[in-house]
Every structure is written in structure tokens, then in C-alpha cells.
Amino acid sequence: MKLDELISIVSNHIDSAINQSMLAECLGITRQTVSNRIKNESEVTVSELKRVEEFFGVNLFGVNGSDETIFIDYYVDAFASCGHGNIVFSTDKIKLPFATSMIAGFSKSKQYSMINATGNSMSPTIDNGDRLIVEHWRGEQIQDNKIYVFCYNNEFFVKRLSKNLDEVIIKSDNPEYRVRTINGKALSDLILIGKIVAMVKQLN
């Protein structure tokens, strides 16, 4: 992750814009150094991330001193709907650090990415604006009642899935949304993206 990306992320978390001077004060360097590093697209270190979290009083990615950290592709403008479906309209991504202890069933052999959630059909488990860690699907059997990201009819959804012999059951955590099923030839239109294995809750 680069310094300008860090400025944007911290600003979103504290709901107030920070500038290069504030970041320089936090990191103990000059504003000119920050400016030069932004121009040179210098990467942020894990130790610098920890200083930023302490300085601004935020926990950005669940990383602490005892955790092993990996860098995950975060698709900033990619949204999966917890509702009636939402098209992923951009694949721009940045690298963000994340603690492996926060990821259910973490394995170095698996691929992970982070996307945003929209809508309220999975509330209270997943709220609008939460960031979701996705373990990419590699052909495994659907695990009953686990939450998945999938594409159906060119729209992306986040739902609980269960599988019978010839149908997939789609459930929402919000009782206002009814249970749906996909069966028959329509199953060929269901594309699994991956399973949700962690989330970063949206700060209010």
C-alpha cells in the first residue's frame, strides 16, 4: 500500500480528511519526505501502519504485534450486494495488510481478496459498507449455511448457501428477505466467487 492510499483509508475511518502534514507528524518525518514518497510511490511498512493506528486511534485492518500479516488485494470500487444484486463496476485494487489470525481456516495455499458489501439483506451479520475477506473458490463443495459471494445473471450477491442434490438454496440473515432457490438449467448461470472468511466492520 502506498502513502496516498493510506491517507485516503485513514480519512474514511475517522470521517475527516487528513493531509500530508498530519501524516508526517504521525510518522516522525517531514512533509516534504511524505510528498517525495508519494511521488515515488513508496510502499508503507507494517511498522508505519501501526504508528498510524496508534496516532489516529483506529484499528485499520485487525493487525497487532503478535499476528502474522499478509497483504490482500482490496478491490476499492468492487461491490457485492447483500440485497437485490449489484454489478461490480471496477477492478481497481490496492494492497492492504491483514492479520492471518482474523481469517477463518487461513492457509498460505489459498487466495484471498477484499471487497465491499452493500445493502441490508445480511444484516445484522453483514452491514452496508462492511469490508469482506473472500477466500477464492477452487471447485470445493458448497458448505451448508456458509456465506458466499457469487454471480448470477451478471449480478453479484452475498448470501448464505446450502446445496441439495439438484438445487442451491439462497438465504438472507435479514428475515425481511425470502428464501430463494436455483435449480435445473439455471444452475449453470450460478458462478461462485468465494466464501466469506472474515470481515472488517464499517465504523459508524
Strand order of the largest sheet: 2-1-3-4-9-5-6-7-8
- The fraction of residues assigned to DSSP E strands is 25-35%
Which fold name corresponds to the CATH topology of the largest domain?
A: Umud Fragment, subunit A
Largest sheet: 9 strands, mixed
Shape: elongated
Category from helices, strands and their pairing: alpha+beta
Task: Give the % helix.
Answer: 10-25%
CATH architecture of the largest domain: Ribbon
Topology pattern, helix = H, strand = E: HHHHEEEEEEEEE
Count of domain modules: 2
Task: Summarize this structure as a short list of keywords or feature phrases.
nine-stranded mixed beta sheet, alpha+beta, 204 residues
What secondary-structure arrangement, pairings included, does this model have?
Elements: H1 3-14, H2 20-27, H3 31-39, H4 46-56, E1 69-81, E2 93-99, E3 112-118, E4 131-136, E5 146-152, E6 155-163, E7 167-171, E8 180-183, E9 190-200
Parallel strand pairs: 1-3
Antiparallel strand pairs: 1-2, 3-4, 4-9, 5-6, 5-9, 6-7, 7-8
Question: How is this structure best described in words?
Answer:
It is built from 4 helices and 9 strands; from the N terminus they run H-H-H-H-E-E-E-E-E-E-E-E-E. The model has no long low-confidence stretch (mean pLDDT 85). The relative contact order is 0.14. Strand 6 and strand 7 form a beta hairpin. Strands 2-1-3-4-9-5-6-7-8 form a 9-stranded mixed β-sheet, with no helix packed on it. Helix content is 20%, strand content 34%. It folds into 2 domains: 54 residues; 132 residues, Umud Fragment, subunit A (Ribbon). It is elongated, with a radius of gyration of 19 Å. By secondary structure, the chain is of the alpha+beta class. Helix 2 packs across helix 3.
